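Session log. Operator J.P. requested a structure for one protein chain; no other inputs attached. Running the standard single-chain path with token output.
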Amino acid sequence: VPSLNNNGDYIELLDPNTNVIHSVNYNINFYHSNIKKNGGYSLEMIDPLNPCNGENNWRASNDISGGTPGRKNSVDAINPDNIAPQLIRIFPTTSNTLKLYFNEVVNENTITNLQHFVVNQSVGNPTTAQFFDATHQIVILTFNQVFHSKTIYTLNVSGIMDCSGNLISDKLNFDFGMPEMAEQNDILVNEILFNPKTYGYDFVELYNNSGKIIDLQKLYVSNGNSVNTIMNDGYLFFPKSYIVITENRNNILQNYSTTNPDGVLEVASLPTFDDAEGAVLIQNSKSEFIDSVKYSDAWHYALLHDKNGVSLERISFDSKSQDENNWHSAASVVGFATPAYKNSQAIDNLNNQAEITLQPKVFSPDNDGIDDVLLINYNLDLAGYSAKISIFDVEGNSIKTISNLQTLEQKGFFQWDGTDTNSSKMARGIYVVYAEFFNTSGKKIVLKKDCVLAGK
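Structure written below.
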């Protein structure tokens, strides 16, 4: 008997002429049990009259011994397949071939009908269509026309049937293009869950900040010590889109809401991210660093009583990753994380037109995702200034020092979360931001603006 991998493998039963009688391409998710998947239980088919239904037709054994060898399966039940197959994703493996990934076994006769596939941009139908392997879930299309870089194509798929006879009723449209190499700041670390709930899982959210289509197989994630591949196969990451990588996709979807569940990807493994402080680094296939963040638990909202299960969100794509002012706890109203979609604390356009501006002028630091922090935006005539920025109440009492002679870029921002030096929340009312900027030439700029700390 061949050895079988714990996390997934392919098994096929052949007749004397090596024809495939039945096959299954199992993985750890077939267990549908976080406890039993750790070992000691067999995988059992639910309905032997429905052998094509893949993951939906398998469960961990319910037998007290952990399996039913030579006996009727403990999970035996009627489990018909009435759901049409889904095309999960596509990837251009060469300049004229496409790889299609279906979620279940599909009918060979419907695959070899070339009229069921067509690409726009005058590419047309493929010249050949064939299964990639014996699983009959991956299809390779070959075209006469080549795909050009910096062009987004659309593949239209129709008429595909699974082995149970369910037909795709609607035409499917999938975009694709030739991927390019990721360079510095093309991909940004956008959200980090490094301290999950009990029985929860870490995740890292990435944002494609470029105009490129990038192959996730050519990116690597690191904690500064170990480096892990993100995907073991080609996966297109489109411009201005979000993806989340985690070791347990179902766990993230069960614990957090998202408008983009397809953007949550399960990976074989992630580096270990410490609960107190650590690093997230993204590299390309040339080992060049694309983005990096050395995070700290202290970056969370100061009045947050329980940080377990709360992600850190990036505020602005335009500001540095390694700036604690550019990070904030995800809002409570979104469930403390926003996997694979726009951050609850994101600000699209920082207002840096004046020397110093406050955004918004009225803020309410209750972590509900609406005006939670005061952004103190500065825009100076030159780089190289240092800043002392303080918060005062209307009586002139010093409340908190935001910056104590930090060296600045020409423009950027700080944030105030409405707390004093002791991290106590301040009362509602009017406060003054007092800013002093100094440079080595002796120039000094003094500016002050008032703001309103509001509350429910």
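Operator note: Helices lie at 108-111, 249-255.
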